[in-house]
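Technical annex, item 7. During the second reporting period the consortium partners agreed on a shared format for inverse folding records so that results from different sites could be compared directly. Each record opens with the tokenized structure and is followed by the designed sequence. A conforming record, contributed by the partner at site C, is shown below for reference.
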């Protein structure tokens, strides 16, 4: 399953059930990179509290707050 997150997306953590020191639920962050590994993905997130902790999807649960703007969208807005 391909991860639907992309760098620049803003997310809110819903749950991180398998981490011994999880990011608190409700925390906001920005996706930095996505690494596909067959049927699961690692997502590098810069959390607003300063932590950098990867998500494992599926497993961890997030909600997208806002999608990253594509370069094409930026060019249209700037014109």
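Designed sequence (site C submission):
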């Amino acid at each position: 399953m391909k991860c639907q997150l992309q760098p620049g997306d803003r997310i809110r953590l819903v749950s991180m059930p398998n981490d011994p020191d999880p990011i608190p639920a409700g925390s906001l962050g920005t996706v930095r990179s996505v690494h596909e590994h067959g049927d699961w993905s690692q997502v590098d997130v810069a959390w607003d509290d300063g932590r950098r902790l990867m998500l494992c999807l599926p497993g961890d649960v997030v909600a997208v707050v806002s999608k990253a703007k594509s370069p094409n969208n930026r060019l249209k807005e700037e014109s």
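The first helix runs from residue 71 to 78. Helices lie at 71-78. All partners now use this format for quarterly exchanges.
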